[in-house]
C-alpha cells in the first residue's frame, strides 16, 4: 500500500512537466463561479454518500447497525450512483488540430486541451469523476486524477490528419464531451454519437475552429496543405473557392447540430480568437443541462 509520502512524491514527479497547462487550466477554471454542483444521488456504487432514516420496506441487511446503535432509530447507509457521476472526455489530437492561422494565436489543439482540463478541474472539485473515453484513463476523483489528465492532454505524438471520436468504454447513463474541429469524415462522428445514445450517454460536442477557417480570407494564388503535408491543393483563384467553402462549412455545422440533437447532446462552435472563458462556461452549463 502506498504511503502518503510516496503518493505525494509520485504526484510531484508526475506534475513536474505539467505546470504551464495545469496552471492555465486552473486560472481559467477560477473565472467560472461554482455554485452548488454535482448530481449526487443514491444508487449502486462503492463509495459512501450519506445515512438516511430507515423506512418501511428497507431490507434488514441495508441497515447500518453501528450507526443505528448510536440513536433511537435505524439508519440506512447509502452509496453514490457511480454511472451518473462519470464524465468521459475525448480531445482530438489529430494534425488538423495543430493549426493556428496567426503566430500569436493559440492552436485549436491548445485551446481544446486547456478547455478540457479546466472543465475537469470544475467537475472534479464539484464531486464528479472525470476520465478519458476509451480504456486508458477511467473516470476517477481527486487531485491526482487532474495530474493524470494534464499528462494525457500534454502528450503530442504521431497522429493522422483528422481525428476520429473515441466512443469505447462509455459507462451507461454517464456524460461525455467531444472537442475537435470535426473537419474530417463525418461517418465516425455519427457512429460515436449513435453508440453514446444507445448507452444512454448524454453530453456536449464543441467544434473548435480557427478564425481563418471561418472567414476563408484567401485570394489569388494559394497553396492549401494539410498539417502533415499529405494533402495538397494549389489554385490560382482562391477567392473563387470562398463561396463553396463557406457553404460546405455551414452544411457541416448544421449536420453536427442535427446529430447532437438526435443523440440528446448539445452542440456549439468556438473560435480560437474568442475568449476561452465563454466556451468553458458553455461547456459547464451544457453538461449540467443533460444530467
From TrEMBL:
Pfam families: DUF58 (PF01882). It comes from the Bacteria. Residues 50-250 form the DUF58 domain. This is Uncharacterized protein (DUF58 family). It comes from Actibacterium naphthalenivorans.
